[in-house]
Amino acid sequence: MLKSALIGAAAFTLAGCATVDVVNYGAERPLLDLAEYFDGTVDGWGMFQDRSGQVVRRFTVRIDAKWDGNRGTLDEHFEYSDGTRENRVWKLVKDGNRYTGTAGDVVGTATGAAAGNVLQWRYVLALPVDGRVWNMDMDDWMFLMDERTMLNRTTMSKFGVRVGEVTLAFRKR
């Protein structure tokens, strides 16, 4: 009896870890093409919530983006509510509906796939926290709402444990 209960609990826990497949959004419109959306200047407003749901950091971001064929550069300028500023420059490569990318604080290569109005993007972010650097697993979902508006939700985890979430709204100029 105890063994059955433990197996059931483990199955339930693992089912909760399953992710949605980006292909489920294939019929959704408008169609997301990062090279089209991130071309020019895009403004964003976001927040980081810890695992309890408390907002612990708010920020704005300006992204200056350009593409040359299938290669793109996203120059992100962050300003946090405490006055701190950061810059991240993404170098992206588009291959059909798949994307890869690198940035100075990204460990290895980010990978992603688009379907319909959605892009799922995964990478490891080297995040400085209290004088140490933590490599955080990022599961990033972007949803194109209309030709100028995109919503972004990212789950951050460490060792498979959810640490927090980033929520962003983008508006293309």
Q: How does this structure look, described?
A:
By secondary structure, this protein is mainly beta. Helix content is 12%, strand content 62%. The protein is built from 2 helices and 10 strands. The chain has helices spanning 2-17, 34-37; strands at residues 40-50, 55-68, 71-80, 85-95, 98-102, 106-115, 118-129, 132-144, 149-158, 161-172. Strands 1-2-3-4-5-6-7-8-9-10 form a 10-stranded antiparallel barrel. It is globular and about 40 Å long.
Described by the principal axes of the CA atoms, the overall outline is globular
Q: What structural category arises from helix and sheet content?
A: mainly beta
Helix content: 10-25%
The helix count comes to 2
User: What is the mean predicted local confidence, pLDDT?
Assistant: 92
Major sheet details: 10 strands, antiparallel, barrel
Provide the succession of SSEs. Answer: HHEEEEEEEEEE
Terminal Cα span: 61 Å
- Counting DSSP E segments of at least 2 residues, the number of strands comes to 10
Q: C-alpha Rg, in Å?
A: 17 Å
Major sheet strand order: 1-2-3-4-5-6-7-8-9-10
Low-confidence stretches: 2-16
Strand portion: over 45%
Task: Offer a quick outline of the entry.
With 173 residues, the chain is mainly β. The protein has helices at 2-17, 34-37, and strands at residues 40-50, 55-68, 71-80, 85-95, 98-102, 106-115, 118-129, 132-144, 149-158, 161-172. The protein starts with a helix and ends with a strand.
